[in-house]
Amino acid sequence: MYKKTILKTGLKVITAPSSDTETATVLVLVKTGSKYENKENAGISHFLEHMFFKGTEKRRTPIEIIEPLDEIGGLCNAFTGEEYTGYWAKVDNKHIDVVINWVSDIYLNSTIPAKEIEKERGVIKEELNMYLDNPMMYISEVWKKTLYGNQPAGRDIIGTKNTISNISRKQILDYMKSQYTASNTVVCVTGKINEEEVIKKIEKAFKDISKEQFKDKEPVSENQKEPKLLIHKKNTGQSQVAIGFRGYNISHKDRFILEVIADLLGGPMSSRMFSEVREKQGLAYYIRTYNDSDTDTGNFVTFCGLDTKKIFQGISSILKEYEKLTFKKIPEKELEKAKNYLKGKTVLSLESSDAKANFYGIQEILKGEIKEIDDLFKEIDKVTIEDVQRVAQDVFTFKNLNLAIIGPFDNKDKFKKILLNYGTKNNKN
After folding, report:
1. Could you say which of 168, 223, 273, 341 is the most buried, measured as most Cβ atoms within 10 Å of its Cβ?
2. Domains (ranges, CATH) in the chain?
3. Is the pTM of this model over 0.70?
4. Which residues is 110 bridged to in the sheet?
5. Cα(219)–Cα(216) distance, integer angstroms
6. pLDDT in tens, 32-42
7. SS3 (DSSP) at 223
8. Which among 253, 271, 249, 254 is positioned nearest to 262, based on CA atoms?
9. Smallest Cα–Cα separation from 180: which of 228, 212, 216, 205?
10. What digits encode the pLDDT tens for the residues 169-211?
11. What is the enclosing helix (H) or strand (E) of 2?
């Protein structure tokens, strides 16, 4: 069970004690990310995340930042998404005070040294090069561009080489001041903890957090009327493909139905996509289907790596599985398997204190409310055969169809023909 406490500053604290672990995790989440940026400062959320490890008034250098955790065998990291940025550390529970002190220090007191900014530009560019050189990783960014184009939701979280080169220290400081505020921040502490003591320590450690009002993001524009295709040309031995549809946001009443459908189609090794595309036809090594829901957007997508010579066969096979689910009801046994798989992998994913911190904290930062695992399972258990077909017919439509590709292709005509064929078969607008 968790407890939510709102401090006098407006800072929200989520505590979730657990007796079945010897660890403790402190996660600080701020509700800002790449969707809160503009074309000129694209990548600033991620740049700022890096800078929080470069020095504070008390810990002047990167080594001084990290040594307190190294000395006790702790783990730490940070991450930037589209709608939130997180900073966390996990330690033996005896060192919880060290972690609270460490996380609050980098979050509130980072000095953003000018000389470190210049060095970090090169580091982040190399991080971008890593993604660009790894098509299996980069296909998710091409997929976002296909859906949302030249707006924050369609841009790379990391930014571009141009914005990385030109973001100034003043821009970083101004962005931090406008976004890193009490009302926009959640501190989540999980593991073997004394709940009352932790809340008092968090209140003291974060007493100087800004109480200013944060700047909200611009709404995402979604006006798709026909299928979209985007090819990122690259001479690769294997072509990366993302094919799917616009879906539901995180508050949509049918979101959990899409979660079940994702596992039914491309979850376990006995799922439909895996069985057909890999096992029967031998077209791919990996193939997975995901439902992704944010506060204002959602998409449903299948990712896979295909033999370039057989890419058209692979895409057609994936679309065929979407068609089958749309027009033919699934057997009860298959639905139960998908629901049980979804529940089982959720339980397995929450065995550690850091995973639980993410589970509780991200729900709070995105929705302002938290469902316990039993509540989520009730939503999953309610899904019926009729629900699956109804939602499939609503989401898997011709006009909402999107295809992103990384591979050595110039001509789009044959890919467009495959998409049009899907529309003809389904007779959808």
Report:
1. 273
2. 3-205 (3.30.830.10), 228-426 (3.30.830.10)
3. yes
4. 56
5. 9
6. 999 999 999 99
7. coil
8. 271
9. 212
10. 999 999 999 999 999 999 999 999 999 999 999 999 999 999 9
11. none
Tokens standing for residue 115:
């000389």
Name residue, tokens 């499939």: 392
Residues annotated as catalytic are: 49
> Each residue of 3-35: pLDDT tens digit?
999 999 999 999 999 999 999 999 999 999 999
CB-CB contact of 81 with 34 (8 Å): yes
Rounded Cα distance, 84 and 233, in Å: 31
Residue given tokens 């940070």 in the structure block: 78
> H or E stretch including 27?
strand 23-30
pLDDT for 315 beyond 90: yes
Q: Which of 132, 183, 128, 156 is nearest to 35 (CA)?
A: 156
Q: What percent of the chain has pLDDT over 70?
A: 99
Token code pair at residue 414? 């044959």
Distance CA 289, CA 267 (A): 6
Specify the residue for token string 């295909």: 306
Distances (CA, A) of 420 to 122, 223, 312, 426: 44, 19, 13, 10
* Alpha carbon distance 405, 415 (integer Å): 10
Across the beta sheet with 401-407, the strand order is: 228-233, 401-407, 238-246, 298-307, 284-293
Amino acid at 52: F
Q: Which of 348, 345, 371, 344 shows the shortest CA–CA distance to 360? A: 371
The answer to whether residues 220 and 384 touch, using CB atoms and an 8 Å cutoff, is no
At residue 369, does pLDDT exceed 60? yes
**What whole-number distance in Å separates Cα of residue 317 and Cα of residue 304?**
12
Phi-psi label, residue 73: left if phi above 0, alpha if psi -120 to 50, beta otherwise: left
CA-based nearest residue to 273, from 237, 317, 307: 317
* Cα 7 from chain centroid (whole Å): 28
Cα gap 1→15, rounded to integer Å? 9
- Judged against a pLDDT cut of 80, whether residue 425 lies above it is answered with no
Average pLDDT value for residue range 244-256: 97
CA contacts within 13 A on the Cβ side of 173: 10
Q: Are 44 and 37 in contact (CB under 8 A)?
A: yes
pLDDT at 423: 76
As given in the structure block, the two tokens for residue 229 are: 């295709």
Distance CA 287, CA 342 (A): 17
pLDDT at 426: 64
